[in-house]
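S.,

Sequence below, as promised.
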Amino acid sequence: MREKLESFIASLVHEGDIVLLHSDVKKTCWLLREEFSSYEDIVNFIIDSFLKAIGEKGTLVIPTFNWDFCRGRTFDYRNSPAQTGILPQIALKRVDFKRTRHPIYSFVVKGKLTETFLSCDNVSSFGMDSPFGLLWKLNGKIVLWDVNYQRGFTFAHFVEQIKNVSYRYEKVFIAPYIDENGKEELKTYSMFVRNLEKGVITHLEPMGKILEDEGISKVNDFYGLKVRVLNSKEAFERISLELDRNPDILITYEKFRNFAVGQSMHDLARRLFPINRSITGKGFRKSLEIIKEYLPELQIKSIKSG
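The prediction came back faster than expected:
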């Protein structure tokens, strides 16, 4: 299984790629449990497989986000843990990875462009001068390893900030910060946050489905694991276009939380409306495939002409 996993990763990314890896590795650890002595060994194998695939010319970026700074708690550059899952926690402990400095949205990095990412001195979490902006400028890949858009597609917030969406605003946070040399001082950082007074709730799945339908997000399967791979520039352009058409594509509102069926109908209509359909064309078949996601019992049959 380990050789198959290594080959699978090599099919997702290639030599020289810049890769942002969001992950949920619980299922992966279960799949490989009999071939390794600990889950930590499995996670390191996953990380090393990505590093092997991208080679010396590539760069691997892993989110080590921690939101304690937003609550006024001290951020310790060397010791504040990642709050984004097992893989980032283990990557953070590795001496071959280096951490960027933002106290809320930090990353650990290894590869050719490590120093380029470490040079980011952004105050705003999702600004153009952040690692998200750098990833976009460098046309990096985003890999969502068995994690859905709602939990893993943080890049969407970068697009929201660049587009200056009306339902978010820049909020300032001030808290103690201990740097890599152990020096402590009060520092100020900011985040483009949701307007909670308006009941804004992040809702990224509809946009994710659009990206999948149009082939911008490529879904890969490994023994039941869903791994999505996106090109950052393509994703940025498509999300930006959709925000121009529908400013609320990435959100819903608290008052609609209990209307799940209505929301689902609206999401389906969003996906079906843009498709060009004729009774025997590709658009008609694509529409049926989408409807089948909602009605799994639907049977689709085709009959040859003549």
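The mean pLDDT is 94.

Coffee later?
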